[in-house]
Amino acid sequence: MKRVVIIGAGPCGLVALKEMLESGHDAILFERSATLGGAFATTTIYPNLHLTISNWAMAFSDFPPSERLCYPSGEEYLRYLQSYAEHFDLEHHITYHSEVCSATLGHNSRWALEIRQLQEKNILRIEADAIIVATGANQVPNKIPQELAGFGGRVIHSSQYNDGFKRDVADKKLHVLVVGGGESGADVSAELGELSPNVTVWLRRSSCVGPRYLNAINEMEQVAVNKTCDFPANGFLEAATTNRMSAGQNVYAYGFFRRLLWHTSVLNRTLSRMCLDSTASAFVMNDQATYVTKNQCMYEALHEKKIEVLVSQNVLASDRTCEFQMRDGTTERREFDAIVLCNGYRMEFPWLQVEKFNSNPRSWFLHCFPKGLGHCLFFVGYARPHQGGIPVMAEILSRYIALLLHGERTLPPGYADQARCDAEAEREYYFLSPDLHSLVDYNAFLESVARRVGCEPILPAFCVLLFNLHLLAVLMLLLDYFNLNPNTLGPWFSTLLWAVTMAGFFLFDNGLLIKWWFYPNWAVWYRQRGPGAVPALPGTVMRRVNLWTATAITEGFILLILWSVPILYAQRLLSILLFIPYTVLTALGLSFPKAWGGLLRPKLFVLHSAQWRIFDLFLP
């Protein structure tokens, strides 16, 4: 048993505390504010704020929400966190109004911490074997861009955005410049566009956007209806971005399908045009090369001409005037009363007394274990999935940390060197978002850590058999086509086997294989087996989504099926060919570079040291 101090009572800190306690460690959590929830504790002042990730995809694996699948408000998600803390009796282990002043690692390999107790106004000194940092990436608001330093009007950061400012905008019809097109920028610009006709958004480059629902209908209207009405599980964004069928494709096939989709009428046309523009230099990888804003509100407002968006690398501000240098060489001049900075935050750890500490999450193995300190200092909440929820990443890492502290698992001997290789691979992969150092691939990261924990999900043996018989039928049909099949029964047998196994995908256990492939990769799957398993829980959750009523046959889904099924067959054949050089290079301690076809592997095994094993060639 280890003495563990956790810093921060947001979602990531709570799940770290729960996993440490459940594993038998002596854990205590310190929180600077008066309540749990982290950033979500302040969402009650933003009643219209809704998460860009569904409640099931933001939920912890052993505590699925009782509510229907939907996009919760910030306040609703806060209530979920409060219920989670109550269910696992976490409050007794949380000390509020406590700010960590310093943490120093002694010669005895124990941490000495000084904690300022804000109410008592004294300093608490304690020792610990390990520290888990869960203060989040949204710590210190970024400053105003240098180009706008000469602006003479009102400037606020999105963290200061409130009802008072909105009243001013509405009453005076202020001219407002919103800087940034991420989730907060999308929400702020769309809301201000309803209050004033004078709202402009400045982007350095076009944004790549994923809508909450996979259609062109008004997003927030659907969010409201969804609260009282079940929506199809395959209609949510994460069904298209975290499903296992897509994760089993190589990144080029996955990305190119996005480009095809943007050329259809499935999504909002303004959104699609912006996505095509933002990924023009990543023609094949497309959205995989960049961060994706999971909120189309801004583009709906732009489509309806309620706001304007200016894409410009260069802007110059003087008093209330801003001049934007456009890509075509022209200049756009605007007058503004106020600027809202939606340009994110930066991380700082001034209390951490570690010499030459590198605060870049990509320098930490699995965005968690810093060089030389992987045995006693851990960071959770600094792996931000391209799609999916940060709390899920924090949970799987916390399960791994608990086992490491017990001595039941060990870090790879050269984990710092591996972190360096992983960082290079991530920078190359996400080359359109080079400065977003926390960005990870949801499925690859989850699977990589799960395999270290020993909790990666496995389908029933009958599903595996059914799948391999289906692939055999495809191979036999291919041989029949070229008159190479030694089977004397003829092509009718191959066709019959293909059809029977395909029907089995839909009929066995209410379409379990179809849900496995095409529904979101919810965290609950990772409680099926391994340490802390609740084997019945995944089945219970899957039965809440009936295949025949929770699957919408839309234009977008039909396109996904028509693309994914032949790609599945081709990828399996390609994977068999690639697995041999991958195995040889891995045995020699070398990476499988992009130039040698490394990105032709299934996307699931490209990043984050995700282990590709021979039996993966035969699993659905």
Identify the notable features of this structure and list them briefly.
5-stranded parallel beta sheet, 620 residues, single chain, FAD/NAD(P)-binding domain, 3 domains, 18 helices, alpha/beta, 23 strands
Give the arrangement of secondary structure elements.
Elements lengths: L2 E5 L3 H12 L3 E5 L43 H14 L6 E2 L2 E8 L5 E7 L4 E7 L1 E4 L6 E2 L12 E4 L5 H10 L3 E4 L3 H13 L3 E5 L4 E2 L9 H8 L10 H5 L2 H4 L3 H12 L6 H10 L13 E2 L3 H7 L4 E4 L2 E5 L2 E5 L5 E5 L2 E4 L3 E2 L5 E2 L23 E3 L4 E2 L4 H17 L8 H15 L9 E2 L1 H12 L7 H21 L9 H17 L4 H7 L18 H6 L12 H33 L33
Parallel strand pairs: 1-2, 1-7, 2-3, 4-20, 7-21, 9-18, 10-11, 10-18, 11-14, 12-13, 22-23
Antiparallel strand pairs: 4-5, 5-6, 8-19, 15-16, 16-17
